[in-house]
Amino acid sequence: MKPYQVKRKFNGTLFTAQFNGLSAALKMQDSINMDGTGVTSNEKLAAYIFENVIVDPPHLTADDDVFPDMKTLNEVVTWGLGVANGKFRGESGDADAEKQGK
């Protein structure tokens, strides 16, 4: 399966996220839980999304200026999680999103 990219603006910043396949989504799910609990760690989730899904702007952290507040950070992470799980495929009507194969 080839990766797909999708773009979306949040708070004036254009983000590009990449879907890397369902195997990558499974690996993500295994790596974002709090040790031994099965509960998702928000910190691990955000770090995984920024390292593996959001390809532009590169090298993001939760403390970057593109996130003026927790609301924006959560919106970007939630969107990135959807892209990582392939949920952007087949969408229509999102004026801010562009989809493209790479």
Runs in which pLDDT lies below 50 for 5 or more consecutive residues are 91-102
In the CATH hierarchy, the architecture is: 2-Layer Sandwich
Report the span from N to C terminus: 11 Å
Summarize the amount of helix as a percent range. 25-40%
| Overall structural domain count | 1
CATH fold topology: rbstp2171
Which sheet architecture does the biggest sheet show? 4 strands, antiparallel
Q: What would the principal axes of the Cα set say about the shape?
A: globular
| Main structural class | alpha+beta
Q: Bin the strand percentage.
A: 15-25%
Identify the quaternary structure here: single chain
The strand order across the widest sheet is: 3-2-1-4
* Number of helical elements: 3
- Rg over CA atoms, rounded to whole Å, is 13 Å
Strand elements, count: 4
CATH class: Alpha Beta
Q: For the residues shown, what is the average pLDDT?
A: 85
Order of helices and strands: EEHHEHE
